Amino acid sequence: MSNNACKGDVLTFFEKENRPFSVVDVCSALKNYGKTGISRALDDLVEEGSIKEKVYGKQKVYVYDQTKLPSFDENEIRKMEAQYANLSVELTEEQKKLKSVIEELKKITSSLTKEEAEKELTQVNEKLNEIEVEVKALKAKGPGIAEADLKLLTSVTNSFCLKAYLLNTVALRGSTSNQYLSTPYQFYYIVLSQCVSDIKN
């Protein structure tokens, strides 16, 4: 293959990867060319200024000329970093919630009998009834609920809905019916979530 083709592929490789490489690294990546051809292409590209050469002892390392890369908006970078940080926090919180749910499920399924679960499920559903009434009352008042109150209400609602689901799982243990689809849990979750969303908006 021609030297120009080799140079083009080597340059494209450095631009795409944008990190330091030795001759051996480039040869491993571009197996269509021999070491002599790649070494010659690197020398030419260094002379042209397309890539930079650094010498560490007896080894040469090459990297794409950073001045040829497009510039980035610093504000956009900071915005992306902030988004990444927020997503990392959210991920950590969701992982904690998942761990808590798994532990709660293990605890409930191992400590309650079917009859006990049914009894406690009835109590939880009664509490969900009360919460539904409170939510609808808040909704009737219109906007203006404090953010702290909204967060507390959402947390309590989610907590009781989750508990209802876990208890229902135990109550239906060994059953072949699909009773969950008609349990109060799903109804309350949909209704309460929608009400809370309406209040928030």
TrEMBL record:
Domain of life: Eukaryota
Lineage of source species: Eukaryota, Metazoa, Spiralia, Lophotrochozoa, Platyhelminthes
GO cellular component, one term: DNA recombinase auxiliary factor complex
Organism: Schistosoma curassoni
GO MF, one annotated term: double-stranded DNA binding
Protein name according to UniProt: TBPIP domain-containing protein
Subcellular compartments: Nucleus
Keyword Nucleus: yes
Gene3D superfamilies xref list: Winged helix-like DNA-binding domain superfamily/Winged helix DNA-binding domain (1.10.10.10)
Keywords: Coiled coil, DNA recombination, Meiosis, Nucleus
Pfam family, one: WHD_TBPIP
Keyword Iron: no
Homology family: Belongs to the HOP2 family.
PANTHER family: HOMOLOGOUS-PAIRING PROTEIN 2 HOMOLOG, TBP-1 INTERACTING PROTEIN
Record-annotated Homologous-pairing protein 2 winged helix domain positions: 10-64
Gene Ontology terms describing biological process: homologous chromosome pairing at meiosis; meiotic joint molecule formation; meiotic strand invasion involved in reciprocal meiotic recombination
InterPro entries per record: Hop2_WH_dom (IPR010776), WH-like_DNA-bd_sf (IPR036388)
Coiled coil: 77-141
